[in-house]
Recover the amino acids of this structure.
């Protein structure tokens, strides 16, 4: 009994002395912080997504107080930029609208899904991708376990009926968290240009000819027909895959008409004010 | 008398180096040793915490033994160390903001740094008197500082030597830490001969 009381007393005494020392020290050693910091942090959405390029919302708030541009917040969009600009007395600038896009439009009978059927490991694209296995299929396409779906804090990514990840432009705020998670590097952020709908190649398949066709019916074959017809010369074939420079695309959709595989699709935008909260 | 203190000091720095011989406090050793100034800052901070911790924990240990509460040693020591680290962080944020930013998360992590708790417990186990324990704490801290500075140099040389891609980063760092630790094994026995203790 005595030792119980003693031990409780001793530890409480140490804790009490420690807390008194710390409280007085925090008063004596208080650091002068910019009082605007708290208000600026409150104006940000608090998603801590990192799309602005700073460590968390507080990091961005500090940077803004030091003169960083106020239009870098993806989730906040133009509304937040306007509020911040008014508060800090600076120019709001144009907010670059971005969205994520999964560059794969795999079919339901693609070889990856057949190979996945005999895989009994963890239900994760990243785990699946680290397994060394010979594959007859496309090794650049969507695996379809939905790692990106689990990463998206806004629920903007879903798997379609073919087990391919699809980004909903009405929800995506362009934070870019999913772009780092995909083991096949299929997801990229695209910046909105003046064109309402640009063309985008939804394929990364580097295979050629019959092998490519057998692996997935929706594959880019690298035939360069789109390169020849593009009036803007903004298409380039690298490693048997066509890439469209979205910033130069005028949305004429000629390339979509000539693509024998139908691998080019229109890329739609939803302006930040019309976004749905999910 | 002086020889005895010197013997304890140098044996803590070289023979019983906390990082490279006892393998305590590896986390900041690998984490903050990339740049020389943050390595020195971290070493100095740990040295200060070690000496202060011993200055407080040694009397507490006597109290614990007198009351028959030795089993509370770990929790009481951690409480004291956590308070000291918090105090140090506040002081550093006030007077050395750049170093505070450079050390980042590793500064509060001194709280759970096994090297600090290790020096508090090991000096008690050795049965040192109060001044001896303080000297041992200073030695342990200086040993940590020495290891940090040495390893910072090693790391810089290794990075300039462009190791194979597979080894770049943490793998080659761990290998060079192992080799640096092996080199410290050469010091065993040196102190006994120097001071004849």
């Amino acid at each position: 009994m005595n030792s119980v009381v003693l031990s409780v007393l001793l530890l409480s005494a140490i804790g009490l002395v420690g807390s008194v020392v710390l409280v007085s020290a925090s008063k004596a050693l208080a650091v002068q912080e910019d009082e605007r910091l708290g208000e600026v942090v409150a104006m940000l959405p608090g998603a801590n997504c990192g799309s602005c390029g700073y460590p968390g919302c507080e990091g961005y708030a500090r940077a803004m107080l030091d003169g960083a541009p106020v239009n870098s917040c993806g989730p906040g969009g133009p509304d937040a930029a306007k509020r911040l600009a008014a508060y800090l007395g600076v120019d709001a600038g144009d907010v670059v609208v971005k969205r994520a896009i999964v560059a794969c439009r795999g079919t339901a009978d693609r070889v990856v899904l057949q190979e996945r059927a005999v895989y009994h490991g963890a239900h994760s694209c990243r785990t699946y991708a680290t397994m060394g296995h010979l594959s007859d299929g496309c090794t650049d396409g969507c695996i379809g376990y939905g790692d990106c779906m689990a990463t998206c804090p806004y629920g903007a990514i879903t798997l379609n009926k073919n087990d391919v990840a699809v980004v909903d432009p009405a929800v995506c705020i362009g934070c870019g968290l999913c772009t780092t998670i995909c083991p096949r590097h299929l997801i990229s952020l695209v910046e909105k240009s003046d064109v309402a709908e640009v063309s985008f190649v939804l394929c990364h398949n580097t295979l050629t000819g019959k092998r490519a066709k057998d692996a997935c019916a929706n594959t880019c074959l690298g035939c360069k027909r789109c390169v020849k017809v593009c009036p803007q010369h903004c298409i380039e074939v690298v490693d048997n895959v066509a890439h469209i420079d979205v910033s130069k695309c005028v949305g004429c959709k000629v390339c979509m008409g000539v693509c024998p595989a139908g691998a080019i699709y229109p890329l739609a935008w939803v302006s930040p004010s019309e976004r749905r909260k999910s | 008398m002086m020889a005895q203190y010197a013997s304890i000091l140098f044996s803590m720095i070289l023979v019983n180096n906390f990082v490279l011989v006892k393998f305590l406090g590896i986390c900041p050793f690998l984490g903050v040793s990339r740049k020389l100034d943050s390595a020195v800052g971290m070493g100095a901070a740990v040295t200060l915490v070690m000496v202060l911790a011993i200055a407080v924990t040694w009397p507490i240990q006597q109290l614990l033994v007198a009351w028959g509460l030795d089993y509370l040693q770990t929790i009481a020591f951690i409480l004291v160390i956590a308070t000291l680290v918090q105090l140090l962080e506040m002081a550093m944020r006030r007077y050395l903001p750049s170093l505070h930013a450079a050390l980042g998360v590793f500064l509060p992590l001194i709280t759970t740094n096994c090297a600090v708790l290790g020096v508090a417990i090991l000096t008690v186990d050795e049965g040192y008197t109060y001044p001896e324990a303080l000297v041992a704490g200073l030695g342990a801290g200086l040993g940590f500082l020495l290891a940090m500075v040495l390893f910072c140099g090693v790391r810089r040389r290794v990075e300039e030597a462009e190791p194979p891609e597979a080894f770049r980063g943490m793998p080659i760092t761990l290998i060079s830490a192992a080799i640096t630790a092996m080199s410290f094994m050469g010091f065993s026995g040196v102190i006994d001969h120097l001071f004849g203790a």
